[in-house]
Amino acid sequence: MGWLPAPASRGRGRAHRVFHPLAGADLRVLAGLLAEAGPIPPGRWHVPVLALATAIGRLPFTLAEAAASHWLPGKETLPAPVFVVGYWRSGTTHLSNLLSRHDGFGILPPIAVGLPQEALGLARLVRPFIEQFYPKTRLIDGVPLAPDLPQEDELAIANLSPWSFYHGVYFPRRAGDWLVPGLFLDGAGPEELRRLAATLERYLVKMTVQQGRRPLLVRNPAHSARIGLIRSIWPDARFIHVHRDPLTVYASAVRMFRTLFQELAIQGAEVDVEALVLETYPALMGRLLQDFAVLPPGLGCTVRFEDVECDPLGQLERIFTELNLPGFEDGLPKFQAHLRAVASYRKAEHRLPPDEITLVQRHWRPFIERWGSPMQPAATQR
Fold first, then answer.
1. pLDDT digits (tens, 9 = 90+) for 200-228
2. What stretches of the chain adopt beta strand conformation (E)?
3. Which domain holds residue 168?
4. Strands 300-304 and 349-351
5. d(CA 225, CA 282)
């Protein structure tokens, strides 16, 4: 595949935060990754050393919470989650942040995805300390970060399981083995899929209880390829697919993945991000559309991001109606307050050269024809 890393490498100058996301990883998962990842530049040794130290230091809390988790209720007694899916930079964050203002939803706060094994115990104790290191905005754009805004559960999955595309981001020398397979679960056998499903179920059941037994609002573009797996756990789970002008998605997703590799990669191998986005978008969207086509009525809703921007309350009402979600009117004041709070946010502009637009149009033509996109060399926005 054209996006695989070149053999040349260069070290990173610094970690972007005090703690790399792997600092919250399961000890066995972390040890397995480090054993298979290959050499790590001396300037980045502090990342695995600190991650191993925190995993060992957390072990009493990890074991205690695992024992207590046996008392959690079965998923059958809890409401199924609502999943927001779509390719990266399609507007999943904006929509999930907006929906999360409704008191009827539970969320996955940052500390709970960072320390998924200890989300009920240790995470609450260290939250005041950890939160002082949170950036005010996301690494990939200027969208505000806050402890009460929902986070993607993919970081939690990467800390709990060997099956996550993030492992290919952390260790780009193994990107070919871990990035796309972690996204599409290619090569996962029946037992590995069973373990992944069990891991996802335990984590989201725990968080549903922690969030007052409200249905969880789960945002994760990677789940666009896992709808079948999710429905094997929760047959009544609901899905909201957000799509956006594909040329805009391409320009912004390339920038996003470049930032992720720059800030989170522990090794220095280079990855062809443009080829990665070109290849994964049609594969991910193709699988999502195939799975959406067989969803029972009331379990799937598709929205256009540009419509959410123009008429957010109208689109929210449609989502609540199509998915039979209660309480839209009750949430109106908080929806409106959130929209006022983010009204000053301005999207950055990106320009794609004509040859790159032609390349995207050739690779993504079915989706451009389906959803529309500017067909001339023009500015695109993230």
1. 999 999 999 999 999 999 999 999 999 99
2. 82-85, 217-219, 238-243, 300-304, 349-351, 379-381
3. 21-381
4. unpaired
5. 11
